[in-house]
Structure formats: C-alpha cells, structure tokens
Design brief:
The chain has 205 residues and is of the alpha+beta class. The protein has a single domain, classed as Gcn5-related N-acetyltransferase (GNAT) (Aminopeptidase, 3-Layer(aba) Sandwich). Helix content is 23%, strand content 33%. The chain is built from four helices and eleven strands, in the order βββββααβββαβαββ. The strands form two sheets. Strands 1-4-5-6-7-8-9-11-10 form a nine-stranded mixed sheet, with helices on both faces. The chain has a two-stranded antiparallel sheet with strand order 2-3. Helix 1 packs across helix 2. The radius of gyration is 16 Å and the shape is globular. The termini are close together.
Length: 205
C-alpha cells in the first residue's frame, strides 16, 4: 500500500486540540483498487446513494436518509469536523472512475490521548469484494504513523457479522458488550466494543 505524504497542516490550540488552517483538506490515501479522498460537493449524489440505502444503515446509529438535503447537511458537518480537528472522513472511491462508493471515518479524535473512533460504510453493490478491508488498511497505516494515534475504537452491532469479521481480520479485539446502547427507529441495539492498538497493528500482506 502506498500513502500520499501528508504535509504538516495542523496547528495546536492552547487547550491541546488540533485545528486545521483555512483551506486545508485531508490527504488522499491510495490502495491497489481504491483511493480515500476528500469529499466534494460534486459527490453529493453518490453520498446520498450510500446512506439512503436501508441495508447500508441497518446497523448504524441513524436511519437511512429520506431527503437529498441530508447529504448536503452531512457534508457540511464533515467539513466542520475536520476544521475543528475531531472528525476526519474520507470518501472511498474506485481508482478507475473516482466515484464515491462509501466512506471511512475517524471521529471523536483526541489528539492529546492519541485515540479515535472508527466508522465505515460501503454501497451495497460493492459488498463482498474486500473493499472495506483494503480501505481500512491504508487508513490505519496513516492513523498510526502520520497521525501518531495509539488506539482506534469501534462500536459494532453484534448482528453485523460482516463488519465484525473485517475488523477482527485486521487485528481488532473484542473488549466489551453494551446492552441496548442505541435506539434507532424504535429498535434497541446492543454494541460490541472493539479496539486496535498501534503496537498490535500489522497490515495484512
């Protein structure tokens, strides 16, 4: 896997949190079949197609989108989170046509503690091709080296066996079970809490 170099774009506030200078954006991370890249307004239709699918959001903490305006609101939140330094969300694009087929996210980033939470989603038509594993591999390489994180956490619905298998294949360990942690569309959902340490990370060969 080859990562694009990341310039020193972040500066520190006096409270230790990181903020982005005006005009800064996430670096592109390149994998054999994919590219993780900054999301643009031109990606709104593709972004909406991903998160308007009930199957994609089945085990998420929010329901599927019903209005395209939600994609615009979401993109604004992504860009605001980056500016504030606590949410880095990349679009996952196929290298052949550069269209967005999903996203992968580090959120709740605590730069002082070297810790972040993980989220990822892929459009249904691209399931079963190990794209998530490929995208997460370059993301973790970047997170544990350039960003100098020491821990990444994931909250997974125990029924989401595909995501559990993907994360465990990448070295995540199950660290806890929280009952009825979420209520989404009237349904109570449990959580499996998982963690991956920089000291444990070994990219799949």
């Amino acid at each position: 896997m080859v990562l694009s170099p990341m310039p020193n774009l972040r500066r520190r506030r006096t409270d230790g949190a990181a903020v982005a200078p005006t005009g800064a954006r996430l670096p592109s991370l390149v994998a054999p079949r994919l590219q993780l890249r900054w999301l643009e307004s031109e990606d709104l239709d593709d972004l909406y197609a991903v998160f308007a699918d009930n199957d994609v959001t089945r085990f998420w903490s929010h329901s599927a989108w019903r209005d395209r305006d939600e994609a615009s609101i979401y993109l604004e939140a992504i860009q605001r989170g980056y500016d504030q330094g606590n949410l880095f969300q990349w679009g996952i694009a196929l290298r052949g046509d550069d269209r967005i087929i999903g996203t992968t996210t580090l959120y709740g980033i605590d730069h002082a503690q070297g810790r972040a939470e993980l989220g990822f989603a892929l459009s249904r038509e691209h399931w079963g091709r190990r794209y998530a594993r490929e995208a997460l591999t370059v993301l973790f390489d970047h997170a544990f080296s350039v960003m100098e994180l020491r821990r990444i956490e994931a909250d997974v619905d125990p029924r989401n066996q595909a995501s559990l298998r993907t994360l465990e294949a990448l070295g995540f360990r199950r660290e806890g079970y929280l009952r009825q942690r979420w209520q989404v569309a009237g349904e109570l959902q449990d959580s499996v809490m998982m963690g991956l340490l920089a000291s444990d990370w070994q990219a799949p060969r």
